[in-house]
Write a structure and sequence with these properties.
CATH architecture: 2-Layer Sandwich
Oligomer: single chain
Distance between the termini: 30 Å
Largest sheet: 6 strands, mixed
Order of helices and strands: HHHEEEEEHHEEEEEHEEH
CATH topology: D-amino Acid Aminotransferase, Chain A, domain 1
Radius of gyration: 19 Å
Number of strands: 12
Number of domains: 1
Amino acid sequence: MWPFPKKEKLEWLRLDDSRKDQYSQKLYRRMLYDREPILVTMEDKYRARELVASKGVCKVPELLWWSCQTPVEIPWDELPDRYVIKTNHWSGDGIYFINNSNEKLKKVAVDMTIGELYRVIENGIDHRGKKVSHAWMEKKLTRLLKKKYAMGLEWGTQEIKPAGVMIEKMLMVDGALPDDVKFHVFHGKVGWIQIDVGRFTEHRQSIYNIDGSRIEQSNPKFPGIDELKHLHERFSPQYVEEMVRVAEKLCEDIDYTRLDLFDIDGELYFGEYTCYHNAAHPQSDEWEELGGRLWKTDY
């Protein structure tokens, strides 16, 4: 399954010397030229857990099951009521949020923004009201394990071996799946903080300086979070400082990556590393300029 609309397929991926100092062009050059082994480790959702744990600065979700065997056979009866299934080498497909408890997850919409990519399955019924069997999920996961990630230019994902299925304990905040808190880290320093809300309803996104002030974007990719004008309206200044410290420690081994963390009642949990944010798709003008300036690597 292609992670972008077919009409956009690869159209933005071309070298443009007039924009060589912009963020997305540097990401594209990473795709073409960067073969640092750390990219593979970070993109591998299973091995990345080990890297994060070795840093000792935040928690990783509890791993309930891992297997690289095909066909996939999940021990369903041994799992708790709530968990998340995903593969270690793929993005945007084969991700299942399973809730078999008597309490439905809050803030999940039938037409949720990522509904074509992820599935929220509660007692065998997905968010669109369709029955989803264990056998169907196992067959889908088995097919994914036999393929490389669809974005072939992302060298780090193509080199992930072995491909496997991992099941983690579901993280929740007030009965709902948590929002994303993402850190764009350049040469060991956080450049900005990205907040995404409503991924399971209606996706909105804003970016902030580490002092908490919002970075206004003239042409953003997603609607902004109008009610969150300053990051300190959600997180205390001290907590933002702590998050920045954690992010910089976790990203000290690479010149640039995006780090996803989850704030679970005041505790930070690792989500994932993304070394090819949005497959090098151009972002807002402000994002492009700032990211290009902070990323000093000259590929």
